[in-house]
Amino acid sequence: MKILLVDDDTSLLRLMTIRLEQSGHEVLATNHPVQALQHIQQGYFDVVLSDLRMPEIDGLRLFERIRETKANLPVIIMTANGTIKNAIEATQKGVLGFIEKPINHEELTQLLNKISHNLHPYQSWSEHIVTRNMTMLALLEKAHRIAQKDVSVLITGASGTGKEVLAKAIHEASPRSQEKFIAINCGAIPENLLESELFGHTKGAFTGAVNASRGLFLEADKGTLFLDEIGDMPHTLQVKLLRALQEQKIKPVGAQNTIDIDVRVLSATHRNLEIEMQSGQFREDLYYRLNVVNLHLPPLKDRAEDIPLLARELLRKSVLKHNVDISSFADDAMELLVTHTWQGNVRQLVNTIEQCVALCDTKVIPKQLVEQSLRQVDKTWPTLSEAKDAFEFSYLKKLLHMTDGNVTRAANLAGRNRSDMHKLLKKHELDAADFRQVIPLHDQAKVLGS
After folding, report:
1. Which pLDDT does position 450 carry in this prediction?
2. Where is the Sigma-54 factor interaction domain (predicted)?
């Protein structure tokens, strides 16, 4: 937990800070309540631990000031002059804890654990999501609420923001948590195989189908199916997916009869599906079927306060994985991590930490090694979806150059119809007119006279 500790006794502040940090908490201590209020406005805290008797502003008045702007921030009051009257007054006003000095550290630990559990009921189901960012915390609270309801959820956000991690957390918080969580990347499987992968097939349904296959919908029956990169799903399959979601039935490739299913579908995409709908690339009816609730993951650059937490947790895991003796990042190395522009989001941070651990031969990771790792990771391969988009964009540009911006000729060369070609050009914001060669008037006369 991140604790704001407020007491005008500086010696007690030092002692409590040491004890709380030894228990694994992150502590910011101040001996002035006005400064405490400034800290609360500027940062995030899980709990405030405040003395009752202080000059200018006492603990109860500080609590009232906190509640004006941070109504949900828990406050524990401590006092050497504790009375039953103080305790009753504090708890009636909404203070979550009241503890007497000298502080019994075991009692305080129990109180903090209790508050932590009440604060973050999602900790067990979302243990792999490390955050203290207010947007992320609000997102997790929303995710926890909708996890209890059997509705479809569309998770959006840039590549590398952790969409599958959030989907798995929702599954863990749902009544289906004891059943399977099955994930598939719709952009990573060829169109001719994706239908069979999802809905299954009968023996002999097509060349190579030497055995029957249940398909992922049946594998995930009673559980959760996560459709990653749903925006890459071929248009023909979108119709069949919509029917399966509406009827809760599937029809394996080659089968005559349908099969009942009971599956919760979560989906994700880095694409803007509203633009995809306008261009005809994504079905509107399927979009609204999948997007009953939308959860949008912010990019890592908007979660700068999370980077130290993430870096330390990733370092801890990597150190255990590789069994090496590395304890921390140097201060300037951590500063570099916090100020870096993370184009690849959390995935890029994971790769950077892994590289640092692999190359480090000291107990503390220095700034120079972080710089080197960032240069290396920035050169890594893109995701399959990113690579496909980049290839498609490059291919279309070359095609338009070859055909002087003639869409009909470009469509013929690509083996697509003219309507599909216009949709692709709109998707990549390409204007065929930009590729048409302008012939000067005197050259046009030569051409006409020839």
Report:
1. 43
2. 129-358
pTM: 0.64
Q: So where are the chain's domains? A: 2-119, 134-296, 300-377, 384-449
| 2-119 matches 134-296 in fold | yes
Query: Rounded to an integer, what distance in angstroms lies between the CA atom of residue 402 and that of residue 409?
Result: 9
How far is CA 199 from its chain centroid? 28
Element (H, E) at 249: strand 249-250
- pLDDT at residue 382 in the model: 62
pLDDT of 383 reads 63
Name which of 116, 77, 83, 112 is nearest 98 in CA terms. Answer: 77
- Measure the CA–CA gap between 242 and 218, rounded to whole angstroms: 16
Helix (H) or strand (E) holding 329: strand 328-329
Q: What superfamily does domain 2-119 belong to in CATH? A: Response regulator (3.40.50.2300)
Question: Which residues, given as ranges, of the chain have pLDDT below 70?
Answer: 81-93, 115-123, 378-386, 437-450
pLDDT tens digits along 185-196: 998 888 878 999
d(CA 450, CA 447): 5
pLDDT score for 81: 62
CB 216 within 8 Å of CB 184: yes
At 441 the pLDDT is 46
* CATH match for 300-377 among 3.40.50.620, 1.10.8.60, 1.10.10.10, 3.40.50.720: 1.10.8.60
Question: What burial class does residue 303 get, using C-beta atoms within 10 Å of its C-beta: 0-12 exposed, 13-18 middle, 19+ buried?
Answer: buried
**Considering only CA atoms, which of 316, 310, 306 is closest in space to residue 357?**
316
* pLDDT at position 49: 92
Q: What is the phi/psi pair of residue 213, to 5°?
A: -130, 135
Distance CA 287, CA 422 (A): 22
Q: Tokens 């979108």 sit at which residue?
A: 238
Cα–Cα distance, 227 to 197 (Å, whole number): 12
Phi-psi region of 94 (alpha: psi -120 to 50; beta: other; left: phi over 0): left
Q: Which class in CATH covers the domain with range 134-296? A: alpha beta
Residue 146, pLDDT score: 93
Structure-token pair, residue 71: 């109504």
Residue 28 C-beta-side C-alpha neighbours within 13 Å: 17
Reading the block at residue 102, the tokens are 């000298």
Please report the DSSP string for 79-136 in residue order: ESS--HHHHHHHHHHT-SEEEESSP-HHHHHHHHHHHHHHH-TTTTTTTT-----HHH
pLDDT at 448: 44
Helix (H, G, I), strand (E, B) or coil at 2: strand
Where do the H-state alpha helices sit in 263-323?
273-278, 284-290, 307-322
Report helix, strand or coil for 322. helix
